[in-house]
What we know:
single chain, 9-stranded mixed β-sheet, Cathepsin D, subunit A, domain 1, 2 helices, two-stranded parallel sheet, mainly beta
Amino acid sequence: MVTLKKNLIIGSSDRLDFPDFGLENISCKIDTGADTSSIHCNKVRIREIDGKEVLVFRLLDPKNKAYLKKDFTTTQFKEKRVKNSFGDKEYRYFIMMKVEIFGQIFETEFSLSNRSELVFPVLIGKQLLKQIFLVDVAQKNLSFTIKKNKK
């Protein structure tokens, strides 16, 4: 017998939390055409600390109200070649991140990318969506509305 998960309906956009980074209510686009999720970052660099390669980065854009002016670091990262939204191939760093949607924590891979020219600083792709979500493109901010109404 197969046990089916209850599917959550998510709209074409929403606001999410990244608890490990202290970020709340970050606007995101839901994109069923993208394989992986991505988040805007800047000042991405590799440093050697205590003989280990460490990825150092800042999340979001300085113009974003949630920007923390803080360097984050991880030794758990990989670099992959991807096709960006303009069809060009580029190398990006990928890290695992926890994201909170509908009061539930999900962990998925995010690419660290320059999304400064795009409307949403975060894009949620199929790797996360296929875990439990159905997308209703006529809806927006379903998770955020529930969170806001609980306060």
